[in-house]
TrEMBL record:
<feature type="transmembrane region" description="Helical">
    <location>
        <begin position="41"/>
        <end position="59"/>
    </location>
</feature>
<keyword id="KW-0472">Membrane</keyword>
<keyword id="KW-0406">Ion transport</keyword>
<feature type="transmembrane region" description="Helical">
    <location>
        <begin position="132"/>
        <end position="154"/>
    </location>
</feature>
<keyword id="KW-1003">Cell membrane</keyword>
<dbReference type="Pfam" id="PF02659">
    <property type="entry name" value="Mntp"/>
</dbReference>
<dbReference type="InterPro" id="IPR003810">
    <property type="entry name" value="Mntp/YtaF"/>
</dbReference>
<dbReference type="GO" id="GO:0005886">
    <property type="term" value="C:plasma membrane"/>
</dbReference>
<protein>
    <recommendedName>
        <fullName>Putative manganese efflux pump MntP</fullName>
    </recommendedName>
</protein>
<comment type="function">
    <text>Probably functions as a manganese efflux pump.</text>
</comment>
<comment type="similarity">
    <text>Belongs to the MntP (TC 9.B.29) family.</text>
</comment>
<keyword id="KW-0813">Transport</keyword>
<dbReference type="InterPro" id="IPR022929">
    <property type="entry name" value="Put_MntP"/>
</dbReference>
<keyword id="KW-0464">Manganese</keyword>
<feature type="transmembrane region" description="Helical">
    <location>
        <begin position="160"/>
        <end position="181"/>
    </location>
</feature>
<dbReference type="GO" id="GO:0005384">
    <property type="term" value="F:manganese ion transmembrane transporter activity"/>
</dbReference>
<feature type="transmembrane region" description="Helical">
    <location>
        <begin position="66"/>
        <end position="87"/>
    </location>
</feature>
């Protein structure tokens, strides 16, 4: 269960960082109240982060028979690559304050973009002795809660915290990947 929660936290880091950015760009004179905006961010990011690992899990379970001999190493490579990608992206966060139009289309696009890593990580759910559906639910709920919290933090602190969250998520993914082959 600890592995699932750590995976959920790591995968939610992208969404958390994006939510901080969205909260930082929220304009107080916007037509939509901030609570509704924060809840929409949490909903979109949570659903996307819950569905994408299921897609990865389904793809992984169909290919697992073909790749069973090297599955742990494949999971290691995927998780470490995703972790390195998150570390790299955490260094290139743009601190410029720009207003973002928070339409449903924008939120859906951001949710999908931040959850692509979760689809790749979903492949590794086949290698853990866990219920993949429960894991995806935990990932979705963790992401939703952290996204709402991130939006509020961003509104108060600006975007600087988002890069630290993404870097930490990258380190956790690398640690989970190393743990799979050790």
């Amino acid at each position: 269960m600890l592995e699932i929660f750590l995976l959920a936290l790591a995968l939610a880091a992208d969404a958390f960082a994006a939510a901080i950015g969205l909260g930082a760009t929220y304009q107080s004179e916007a037509k939509i109240p901030f609570l509704k905006t924060a809840l929409l961010v949490g909903f979109y990011f949570g659903v996307a982060q819950g569905v994408m690992p299921l897609i990865g899990y389904a793809l992984g379970s169909t290919m697992l028979g073909w790749l069973s001999a090297g599955a742990s190493w494949i999971a290691f490579v995927i998780l470490v690559a995703l972790g390195i990608k998150m570390l790299y992206e955490s260094r290139s966060v743009n601190d410029e304050e720009t207003q973002i139009n928070l339409s449903h289309r924008t939120l859906l696009s951001l949710a999908i973009a931040t959850s692509l890593d979760a689809m790749a990580a979903g492949f590794t759910l086949n290698l853990l002795a866990i219920n993949a559906y429960l894991a995806c639910l935990i990932i979705a709920l963790t992401t939703a809660v952290l996204s709402v919290v991130g939006a509020y933090i961003g509104r108060q602190s600006g975007t600087w915290l988002g890069s630290w969250a993404e870097a930490l998520g990258g380190l956790v993914l690398i640690a989970i990947g190393v743990n799979m082959v050790v």
